[in-house]
Amino acid sequence: MKHRLMSLAALVLAMLMLAAAASAETISLSGTVTARETWEVYAPIGGSVEEVCARVGQQVTADDVLLRLRTNKVYATEDGTVTGVFGQPGDDATTVSGRYGAVMYIEGTDQYTIAASTANAYNATENKYVHVGETVYLASRSSSTHTGSGLITAVSGTSFTVEVTSGTFESGESCDVFRSAGMETTSRIGRGTTARIDPVAVTGSGSIVSFAVKNGDQVKRGQLLFETLDGAFDGLYMSGTDIYAGVDGVVASISASAGGSVQKDSVTAVIYPAGAMQLEASVSEGDLSLIQVGDPVEIEMNWDPDADSTLKGTVRMISAVAEIGGDSVSYAVYVDFTPDSTTRYGMSAVISTLEREQHVETEVQEEADGE
Question: Which candidate, 278, 289, 267, 270, places its Cα nearest to that of 25?
């Protein structure tokens, strides 16, 4: 009788051990560090890329510049005085020009032109023929102090145009035009009337980014006047030439290059935001019963197998859609964890589930810590 009792006790103990072993079964999965979410950086306006200021894999802050756009620059075509600046940063240059005739005007240093004719030239054959580019000398018929010089800029039959390059004159003055600096009568090649030269209209295309001059400034030919970018700023609000990250994180991709172009509202870069790391793994169909959402896991990074400690994580999601490859069926598993300073995107790791007893102990300890 005693022997039978001992055998029965041994059988019960064996069964309990098997049950405990079954409840303590764990699995290990191969995982990769990926991003739980991404941040897309859009171009606020179109243009050519002047400079790429970041590279893939670089850690950035929200205020870091990723791309810098190249502006279209408008220069002065002659010396003069800036007048009538009608645009402002953010405005569309074409719209401003359509309304005011120009973004700004330049009153040239040479303020007068003379519409002249050889009809009043001294009666000599050589005085009847004038040439574009010829320097001539001018004398007012009403004031002996109004003299100067000019340049013939156009010839049409007996008519020609002189741009006054020096001297003091008034609009509407009648002037004799001479070929000789001494202004002898025999060198007179014509006569005409002075008229004010119209200010030069300065136009542009795209949206105005900045002005390099202001109303009343003296400028030289070739001097920068203003800069524009292709396209239009939202709400006519000038956002500048720099495209910023907009969020702290790691640059995942940049879809622009120096010398290339970007279109307004196009994605120029993708960033993995700070704190968005997760582990992604696959579990086979046969092991689905061994892992659940909310399970705590231990994580060992493969790059440092000799590390003294492991990272902790929690199963956040198990996909409800299978990944079928050949004859195998698996499901994606996503694990939230707190990475350390050495963790990088793309690293591989071993994800180990805890024994159920450990799982329960962990939950009890967490509740106790919470209290």
Answer: 289
**118-166 tens-digit pLDDT:** 999 999 999 999 999 999 999 999 999 999 999 999 999 999 999 999 9
For residue range 244-288, list pLDDT tens digits in order.
999 999 999 999 999 999 999 999 999 999 999 999 999 999 999
Give dist(CA 73, CA 241) in Å, integer. 13
- Could you tell me the pTM of the whole model? 0.69
Query: What is the rounded (10 degree) CA torsion for 60, 64, 70, 76?
Result: -170
Answer for the pair 176, 191: CB distance below 8 angstroms, yes or no.
yes
Give me the DSSP letters along 9-43.
Answer: HHHHHHHHHHHHHHHT---EEEEEEEES--EEEE-
Residue 133 identity: G
Q: What is the largest distance, in Å, between two alpha-carbon atoms of the chain?
A: 158
Q: How many angstroms separate the Cα of 312 from the Cα of each of 34, 296, 359?
A: 16, 7, 12
